[in-house]
Amino acid sequence: MPRIRFNGITKTYGDHEVIKTFSADVPDNEFLVLLGPSGCGKSTMLRMIAGLTDITAGELEFDGTVVNGTEPKERDIAFVFQSYALYPHLTVRANIAFPLLMSRFKPYHHLPVVNTLMRRRVLRDPDVDAQVRRVAAMMELTDYLDRRPRTLSGGQRQRVAVGRALIREPSMYLLDEPLSNLDAILRSQMRAEISDLHHRVGKSFVYVTHDQVEAMTMGTRIIVLNEGVIQQYGTPKEIYDSPANTFVARFIGSPPMNLIRCRLDGRSLRFPDGVTLKLPEGCASPSAPDRDVLLGVRAEKISVAPSDAVASDTMPAHIIVSEYLGAETVVAFKLGRRADQTEQDTVAKHDLQQARIPGELHLTPGADFTVRLDLTNVSFFDVDSGERLPVAVPEATR
Amino acid sequence: MKERVDVTDVGTPTRTTPRALGTTPRGQRGRRLAPYLFIAAAAVYLLLLTGAPLLDGLWLSLTDTQLLNPTEGAFIGIHNYSSLFADAEFAHALVVTIVYSTATVLGSLTVGTVAAVAMNGAFRGRVLARAILTFPWAVPSVAAVLIFSWIYNKDSGVLNQALSSVGLAQHGWLVDPTWSLFAVTLASVWKVFPFVMLVVLAALQAVPEELYEAARVDGADAFNRFRTVALPFLLPTLRVTALLMTIWSFRRFEIIWLLTQGGPVGSTNSLVISVYREAFVNSELGRSAAMGVVGLVLSTIVTVIFFYVDRGAARKEAL
Amino acid sequence: MTLRKTLSSAVRGFGISLLVVVAGFPVYWLFTTATHTTAELFGGQVQWLPDLRRFLTSFTSATSGVPMLRWLSNSAVVAFGTTFLSLIIAILAAYALSRYRFRGKGVFGFALFATQMLPEALLVVPLYSIFLTFGLLDNLTGLVLSDTAFAMPVAVWILKSAMDGVSLEIEESARVDGCPRYAMLTQIMLPLIAPSIAAAAVITFFEGWNEYLFANTFITDEQKWPASKGLASFIGEFVTPLNHVMAAALMFTLPAIVFFLFVQRRIVSGLTAGSVKG
To answer: How far apart are CA C189 and CA C159, in angstroms?
Structure first.
């Protein structure tokens, strides 16, 4: 239920700053994805939301109440760990019921025999039993209730972990890369199941992943993190269409967004090899005239034509690699004719561009061809800072 | 992927960072105190039952306390120590300790490693063989001494009987000063080698199978496979085991005392035996304590050397 | 090639047999000796095989002359006491060492290790005077206390390395699920490391069961002797028939062998892991 507000959250370990003044406001019932490469601080962020890690500075608010320093159990959350963290000594039933067991825990339950007896009694309680059965049915675990976690497959363990999160009906679910230990097929299936779960329970989800496909398919809001700094916060569409900087542009999308250096002069783009393209009418562009920019073009906005087709809006290029994927082909190319290249600097990564074209087109590596850029919805980035340049649609174009 | 999660975040006093806003001071203090509460029992216990007696022992070593009159010892400074170092018998005890420890450590390391390598392969009856090889460790020292003093028995012991039946000379194993230290060492090696075997076996089983296979593909024979693949894995374990074996040998009491009481004519009179004898036979508590302290210093030196070597080796391995 | 193979496996077989014979013989000899009369044993003829018919009589007569059963039960009391006390203290200390970082941790760890260097013979006199003050001499409780001082650190090693093997996420998960901090140890940790607790229990049990030096010094009343001291009193004494002594020693040894066999591997992995890290 809660609205989550991050108010300048900072986390340091000794002198090492893991999270740098993190601020964001996440509305209720969202599926928030914390996305970023390894070591960017996203798991630390999640653990701070859970209360497993102390916040060094700043305030974390749930519905306007500061929750810094409260125990995880007081935050009304459930946490699904990357390793699932199932209790190996308990059956699936007891694992799922564990939060309920704990809510009835009394200090004298520590006594060895009492402990076992009480656990058995709680598990037999019709109320608890009904809840466990409901969750088990939801997660399709009914047949496995009396097994131990180690006898289950990865996907089943995953479901037990989610089941344990479900049983308490918390107001927020925190998931830390829950799919990273599953194989590709199971992963896409669980992706759908978790999205479906989000719709059914109608609670807030916070989901940590480094996989942009998971982020794009499941998230309703995405926070992109890099080195402890928020890069962008927005809906998947915003992040995909208008990345806030070159990091987001390259991190989101497969293949990543192409960044082509060129000179923007008014409404025309001049490329290093001499080609000049005009921005189409009605398309937004940065207002500052005559400067070097990085032009960001999505791979699917690039189409190809044979090398002899010369038109005003095409550029010469030559193919480096062509990856045939069935429905589509991803072509890695460099701008300019092959003959013009000096051999040494051939595959410097930065000026390798990628286009996504229909699968039936076959292209031979090394061949020259021409590319046509669809410039209607392109992004512009500052060459030095990598930040997105603000654009405006000019009122009157010539 | 997974950021390195700070495990111990929980109990660390946040020294370098300002305290998190809104954290209840009570909770903070509780968390900081928690580890100390957990170790409190152990710490108090160690202080009372080893720390205090140790300090008392240090004090005793500076007095001339007698067993029959334990409260009336007078402070005599380092007299006990200076008299010890002038004492040929004590020097002899040091030599015996060093000879006994070196022999026991080398013997048990060798036998234990060989046994572990032998047990590491698959063969019929492996489980049974390993169980039998573990027996010596499980046998209580007192029982082991009873068995060995019977085996070593001069007239009817099985060792002498067997030797004479194959035409070799018989010896008074425990009563002949030339053989007594050997006999005691042999019994000790028998008693402790299984520990080495089990430790090394555990380390051997941690060696990835692919490494052996790679060495085999590269054409290494069995001995080379052991040397190039297994030994580097074993070395850290062997070093630690050697340390434990050494400091345990320095203080091993029951086997020697009950087999020979340090005799005959002091031939097995190790430091620990001298400590005991000085206190309970000669009633010289002060002198006994001084001997004990010397022994402790010896163990400490050995430990420090081992840690130094270990660190040096670890650094070399890291390069 | 095949010849070399057969040869090497023959050498190996021989080596293994030799080791097994050397390791097993004294135990076998204990058993064999227990089943022969003194006349047979000292008759100048080696009795290589046990006389199984004499098996039971040896045991019954071993317990008739001396209070062997009494001694064994004293040993059991000391051993159980040592186990209980050591485990409680060690579990708590191991948890702190495994899960917390705190000032003085290194010193504490070193103190635990240092107990393995202390010669008991040095501590025995000061302990004697401490026990004298508190009336713990001639008292099995005193033995429990002194044996625990040496058994507990070993138990801490074993348990700490077992706890290090339990993933942190499990505990965090329990925390999120509402498990109170004080319940973490009994609800999550202990069930997970049960096998290592068993190993630590056996090791501490036999520290108390086998201990001789303290028992010899602190206990003078023959009725309160533990079996180690009782058996040691037979050494160099020629009144009790040797086969009875050996039968008594066998009774003392068997529980040790049986228990050790159950847990040997865990003890070892615990010991090495714990000590490698210091």
So the answer is: 10
